[in-house]
Amino acid sequence: MNEKERLLTIGQFAALHGINKKTLMWYDEIGLFPPAAVHPDNGYRCYSYRQSPILETILLLRELNVSIPEIQAFMENRSAESLKCLLEEKITHLNQQISHLQAVQKTLHNHHQNMVTLLTMDLSEITLVEKEERCLVTVDIDEHTSFEKEVELITAETARFGLGRLHDASYGSMIPVDSLQKGNFEDYTKLFIEIPFLPRKKGLHVQPKGIYLRAFHKGTWDRLPKRYEDILTYAGEQGLCLSGFSYEKGINDTVADRIEDYIVQIEIPISPQSS
Fold first, then answer.
1. How far apart are CA 43 and CA 39, in angstroms?
2. Handedness of CA 58, 91, 193, 155 (dihedral sign)
3. Per residue in 226-242, pLDDT tens?
4. What are the beta bridge partners of residue 8?
């Protein structure tokens, strides 16, 4: 007899597929996966090796969270076409889950890096850092934009890009370098949303790759202009030409209770023409 024609006990077949034999008993009871034979004397279930591909398909679908009724419907009309359609649907769903988990992972890395920065930073220090290009969702604001309107704009953009929760992105504000150089330290023109793994799309703001001046400000916003004066003085002394926008974001929102303890990270691109 061909070895593959031999019948296996329920224990052997369960061990072969790494499952509990009670699972096989349940699958039989609900009519999803009956044994190849049942011993006429003792009622023991026996399985054929040739049933393995079918069971593995069921186990795969269960791992993909396909419901028992869905699997039963598939088993009743099992074909290459029905399996192809079912797998395509689950692959699409799985890709969405993977993208979400990658976004969560990036968010966690960002929060972790912020905490590392908090524990090691020198608030008085101004440094140069290298950054990669990234695309940001932005909304336009001006001095007349109310806080309520800003919330409305942010809410609309997060909904448009399918952002499930606020913690899935980071937020900040932008002020033109031209305004800073003219002493207009409150001339904010945009709010930005950084969404992890956002594909480059027309209409997004591109934060350029390159060297950035980085500084920090701790305390209330009315003291930010003084920090910008320090930054401009430092840039002038170092022969650095600032360009584009200043990007501001809070880095300790989750651990600061008082506005006096709030820390803003400031990053401004350095023009390649700097001496």
1. 5
2. negative
3. 999 999 999 999 999 99
4. 47
Phi/psi of residue 63, nearest 5 degrees: -65, -30
Q: How many Cβ atoms are within 10 Å of 135's Cβ, its own excluded?
A: 16
| Contact yes or no for 71/56 (Cβ under 8 A) | no
Q: Which two tokens stand for residue 238?
A: 């170092």
Q: What is the pLDDT of residues 49-94, one digit of tens each?
A: 899 999 999 999 998 888 999 999 988 888 889 888 888 988 998 8
* Sheet containing 45-48, strands listed edge to edge, beginning at the edge strand earlier in sequence: 7-9, 45-48, 37-38
Strand, helix or coil at 247?
strand
214 by DSSP, 3-state: which?
strand
At a CB cut-off of 8 Å and minimum separation 6, what does 214 contact? Answer: 126, 127, 128, 129, 265, 266, 267
Of the candidates 231, 256, 251, the one whose C-alpha atom is nearest the C-alpha of residue 171 is 251
Would you give the end-to-end CA distance of the chain in angstroms? 85
